[in-house]
Amino acid sequence: MTKLVQLFNNNRKWAAKVNAADPAFFPTLSKQQQPEYLWIGCADSRVPANEIVDLLPGEIFVHRNIANVVVHSDLNCLSVIQFAVDVLKVKHIMVVGHYGCGGIKAALESDSHGLIDNWLGHVKDVYRFHKEKMDAINDPKERFDTLCELNVIEQVANVCQTSILRNAWDNGQDIQVHGWVYSIENGIIRDLDVTVTGHSDSTNL
């Protein structure tokens, strides 16, 4: 229980610090949110979206799950995307994976992990789509890193194929989808150069 009390104390200190720096911050924040970005990332505690890109609360809309997966049957993720696109009118959607991802590692293993194996089947599908390339890599770390990257690229394609994005582009909405990967070892984000700006770009993924 002591640790939970500490969290409440930390919260009060943080709120006081923010208020001291900008007394109008919380009153303004409480009235609206107008983020330009939707971050779809991994639930890993080492990958906090706001801190990594040094943005304040209210500046980035976030959805996170194990291994930053986007599938058409996940109504949670789709609802977040729809709200971000249709209501918030975000300009950019970033699918952000990270090296050292536990979900990717588990998908590479043959061991059973219980219920999560069903979710990681989506990552195993990515491996299957790129089996020839993956099987040709002998170095374990390189294989691990490569699947982290390929998974991001696949999820970018999945975002672009949702009815939400397709309708948005059909209606002339200015929105781009990006694929990034983050390194926990040095804190740097790498752009995987798979930015999609409309239907014509999405066909190349």
Describe this structure in words.
There is one protein chain. The N and C termini lie far apart (49 Å). This protein has 205 residues and is an alpha/beta fold. Helix content is 50%, strand content 14%. α5 (102-108) packs across α6. It has a five-stranded mixed β-sheet with strand order 2-1-3-4-5. The chain has helices at 2-21, 25-31, 49-52, 75-87, 102-108, 116-129, 131-135, 140-160, 163-170, 199-202, and strands spanning 37-42, 60-65, 92-98, 176-182, 189-191. The protein contains ten helices and five strands, in the order ααβαβαβαααααββα. The longest helix is centred in the last third of the chain and has 21 residues, at 140-160.
Layout of strands and helices, then pairs:
Blueprint lengths: L1 H20 L3 H7 L5 E6 L6 H4 L7 E6 L9 H13 L4 E7 L3 H7 L7 H14 L1 H5 L4 H21 L2 H8 L5 E7 L6 E3 L7 H4 L3
Overall pLDDT score: 94
How are the strands ordered across the major sheet? 2-1-3-4-5
Structural class: alpha/beta
Beta-strand residue fraction: 5-15%
Uncertain parts: none
The H-and-E topology, N to C, reads as HHEHEHEHHHHHEEH
Number of strands: 5
Quaternary state reads: single chain
Quick one: biggest sheet? 5 strands, mixed
Please give the radius of gyration in angstroms: 19 Å
Range of helix content: 40-55%
Distance between termini? 49 Å
Shape by Cα distribution: globular
Count of DSSP helices?
A: 10
